[in-house]
């Protein structure tokens, strides 16, 4: 009788444990529905994400009402429709546009979408031969002003934002302009003359040198500027200093002193491009020579060493504070590697490797296949998109926990209507939350809906 009581007690404890464990396990990963809107992340300021509502085809007939909503940690939908008086609407080029963008004031169990405090404004970059007009939205986040593009969908502005979004650059063919929060005017920080020669003179020399060769003679004055993590410096590519030898070089610009100097000099007609800053003192750059590319890391004095990445054609697709994510062969991207850089000797230590049942790919269909992935802001996880072998038209999201060396694969977002939903794009909001955009066909029309996924 006593043995039977013990067995019953054990069974009872097991049942109770299961009843407790199932909800906990089920609540590790949560989905929260933000609505049939195409929310694009444009900034994260003081841990406050800022999103832009990219209007879809169905919105061209009329401007939708501004939407506010909340979600709970359980992921249960509590979305509510309502008009937000802070949001403005207008028509431009026969396309409705909600101005300014929406902001997530906080990503918490009780989150609220809210409007901005100020209208979009225009900044003019008035050069000698052309004037560039840039539309910006000035946001107030935690009593700090930041700048974002008024319409992030438009890439024509050439806008490059600093990591904290208090500064942005406008790179034109001949000039580089700086815009700072709190200042209404753009300031040209590039020089008009290099070694006594103007842009026109150097381009004329380049045209004569390349006469008879295929392709146009392109002079990169301040191309591909990349901010350092603290926003104090930029690295850019130029070929104004190597017109005779060919190729390009990398230069470093200090925004405090407004001085520039060579970082990686051209030697024999090779090309260079900054891939990313590793921290405030080191950059990773790519060297292109004789049809091949190699990766190097350099300090601010220009001392560099090659990164020894295995594979025939390795490609780095994510960099964060000493961490690298890459695939050994970009022509057949079926392996994901994560490595850590030692700043003492620039050696590489691989901490994770996974051969996936599919291929890494660029998010936009019809473009060159390139890996698409990001580290979380705290560096604890990596998320990347891939197309599984079981369906080339499907995209899935893999999330790698670097501490546990394990990954989880998201195959699709929840769908109450039972329609097939395909992942379209994503961005990290913090160390656990993803803003996920999902594509599905509704009434014969492709529709993007937005979700928040929380990894337990």
From TrEMBL:
Pfam families, sorted: PD40
Similarity comment: Belongs to the TolB family.
Superkingdom, natural source: Bacteria
Protein name as catalogued: WD40 repeat protein
